[in-house]
Amino acid sequence: MTSAARAAKGNDFNDLARTFSDDDSKSNGGELGWFEPSDVMDQILAGVKPLKPGQISPVIRTSHGFHIVRLEDHEVPGLRPLSEVKAQIRATLIDEKSSGQLETWVESDLVKQHYVETMY
User: Fold this and answer.
1) Which of 64, 86, 101, 115 is the most exposed place for a label (fewest CB within 10 A)?
2) What is the distance between the alpha carbons of residues 83 and 69, in angstroms, rounded to a whole number?
3) What per-residue confidence (pLDDT) applies to 54?
4) Mapped to the 3 state alphabet, what secondary structure does the chain carry?
5) pTM of the full predicted structure?
6) Which class for 114: exposed (0-12), middle (13-18), buried (19 or more C-beta within 10 A)?
7) What Cα–Cα distance (Å) separates residue 62 from each residue in 24, 43, 70, 85?
8) Which of 29-33, 42-46, 110-114 has the lowest mean pLDDT?
């Protein structure tokens, strides 16, 4: 049974990549990371574009060989709705504010009230 057939049957994609891949990403289960459409070959983009997260592409032939790709996630460029990013914005603002407050406390209260010696 080919690796493509095994992937289509539901075998663990990461294990298949570790076993059958010739790519440098083999050691980490074939993980390629995030990429922009302009970062990949047209044939790969055409094979990935119709996929939904979790789906596996048919065998894609390029000048570098044959590829089987599993799409983990697809993010559409552009503005995201506030409801999707509200928690992330809040966390970022809280981190920034608390970092500023900590710095102010160290510089104004802690250093002024204590003897501080820096050793390098």
Assistant:
1) 115
2) 31
3) 87
4) CCHHHHHHHCCCHHHHHHHHCCCHHHHHCCCCCCCCHHHCCHHHHHHHCCCCCCCECCCEEECCEEECCECCCCCCCCCCCHHHHHHHHHHHHHHHHHHHHHHHHHHHHHHHHCCCCCCC
5) 0.55
6) exposed
7) 17, 6, 16, 37
8) 110-114
Q: What is the pLDDT of residue 91?
A: 93
Mean of the pLDDT values across residues 52-79?
Answer: 86
**Are 25 and 35 spatial neighbours (Cβ–Cβ below 8 Å)?**
no
Burial 27-41 (b: 16+ CB within 10 A, else e): eeebebeeeeeeebe
Structure token pair of residue 93 = 């603002």
